[in-house]
Amino acid sequence: MTKIQLKEINEKNWEKCISLRVGKDQEQFVASNIYSLVQSRYETSYIPLAAYDEEEMVGFVMYGKDPDDGVYWIVRLMVGEKFQGKGYGKQILLKTMEQIKMLPDCGSFIITSYVPENTIAEKLYEKVGFIKTGEIIDEENIMKFYIV
Ligand SMILES: CC(C)(COP(=O)(O)OP(=O)(O)OC[C@H]1O[C@@H](n2cnc3c(N)ncnc32)[C@H](O)[C@@H]1OP(=O)(O)O)[C@@H](O)C(=O)NCCC(=O)NCCS
């Protein structure tokens, strides 16, 4: 597997992005990419990014500073159904965290959340250093990654 690259969504790749889907049984865990792209159009602090392995778009991630709490959140993460289980999810997550850490206003932690039944996401976030805070917002468990 080559190194994942995160690229902006533009006029050339947005249709590919919305065609990228998770498995039917995973749809309860993450909003569709079309929803996320529309959200980023109107909630402009969110940055949607496509994840590529060479020329192939394999996943999608969206992060941004929550205007209410001033903290960077990773609000979406998905890998296309047929690309899952190859290590892409972990790479996308680590790359996104690196990108946030480089920002001058990144603060001292990053937040993410997951649907409680989503044990794969929970384990993945724990593996890269996120810790459960015990808070539940919008029925999702909150996790924090402390930037040292
Ligand atoms: C969660 C998700 C992004 C993981 O992406 P992925 O590319 O399949 O994950 P990776 O291959 O990087 O694997 C990450 C870890 O999860 C584990 N894992 C991945 N798929 C798994 C599965 N079906 N069953 C058990 N463990 C699994 C891997 O073993 C791996 O652990 P390791 O590093 O010890 O090997 C992907 O499953 C997905 O898009 N799910 C639907 C959307 C979603 O739930 N998003 C998260 C919202 S909070």
Automatic annotation (TrEMBL):
Top-level taxon of origin: Bacteria
Residues of the N-acetyltransferase domain: 4-148
Keyword terms of this UniProt record: Acyltransferase, Transferase
Signal sequence, renumbered to the chain: none
Cited InterPro entries: GNAT_dom, YpeA/RimI_acetyltransf
Matches recorded under Pfam families: Acetyltransf_1
Keyword Acyltransferase: yes
Protein's recorded name: GNAT family N-acetyltransferase
The species this protein was found in: Evansella tamaricis
